[in-house]
Specification:
13 strands, alpha+beta, two-stranded antiparallel sheet, 275 residues
């Protein structure tokens, strides 16, 4: 009888393996210790990101974790909670020297500085875009975010809002985003790096804008998603088993949803909608 039960249990686990039996769980780190920080940055370098760029972001990570208060960052990689990590208690010490530049740092600046050597754009950009107001001010006034004029133009074109006027359905708005990337001739070189963008809806302005973004790297250890979780939230690197898991993780963020007038967030990889 016991042998029969064991056989059925093994068979059931095998049949359900694609549904999660024995499935490896997603793991994350805030790179608060040198080992995990070096591990993540070395993996990004192995995918094509330059050491110059990883060294820059390494300083930002170190400064942020040293300046953050009221939060205990775990060491190494740990299991990603199903509901995500709650960073609402994180506060930055505004008397710290690094605070003067960290208060400006967000997901868009972080992703761009990591990937800027792989990004090219064309056409015109609108640096008066209200959704990029603080980003552009940071680039123009904060030494840590200085970049060339060409890079500044690429940044603006990359993250400019997308008009969704007369596009009232989710499908129509997805098409508008993909068309905008084509019109701006955005290209990201290399086959191991992607820019993931979450476009949020502003019905009043009739636009979609990049409310969150991060870098996806195809490493020898699988998919690695690196992000600055929020302006006052830490850096996070997460290992996913599939792009579906990544999309599910992003769409589960409650802070990416507004009121009932807004259509659902749209997730893209290098300008193509992730279905």
């Amino acid at each position: 009888m016991r042998k029969t039960i064991l056989v059925w249990a093994v068979a059931l686990c095998f049949m359900l393996s694609l549904g999660g039996c024995g499935k490896k769980e997603s793991e994350y780190t805030n790179m608060a210790d040198q080992t995990s920080e070096n591990e993540v940055l070395k993996e990004l370098e192995s995918c094509g990101i330059t050491q110059e760029q990883t060294e820059r972001v390494k300083k930002w990570i170190t400064d942020f974790n040293a300046t953050a208060q009221n939060f205990s960052f775990p060491e190494g990689f740990g299991k990603l909670p199903e509901e995500g990590v709650d960073y609402s208690g994180v506060m930055l010490n505004d008397s710290a020297e690094a605070y003067s530049y960290l208060q400006w740092l967000n997901c868009r600046l972080t992703a761009f500085f990591l990937l800027k050597d792989q990004i090219s754009t064309a056409g015109t950009g609108n640096d008066a875009d209200v959704w990029l107001m603080f980003d552009v001010e940071a680039i123009d006034t904060v030494p840590e975010y200085q970049m060339s004029e060409e890079e500044r133009t690429d940044f603006v074109r990359l993250y400019n809002q997308v008009s969704v006027e007369d596009a009232d359905t989710l499908e129509d708005q997805k098409e508008r985003i993909e068309e905008a990337w084509e019109k701006r001739a955005v290209e990201i070189t290399g086959d191991k790096l992607s820019l993931i963008c979450v476009y949020l809806h502003s019905p009043e302005d009739k636009v979609r804008f990049v409310g969150h973004t991060g870098i996806l790297a195809e490493t020898k250890n699988g998919l690695l998603f690196v992000e600055k979780y929020g302006p006052m939230a830490p850096f996070q690197a997460t290992r996913f088993q599939s792009r579906d898991e990544l999309k599910e993780y992003l769409l589960a963020r409650k802070d990416l949803y507004g009121d009932a007038t807004e259509l659902a967030p749209i997730v893209t990889e290098n300008g193509e909608v992730m279905e």
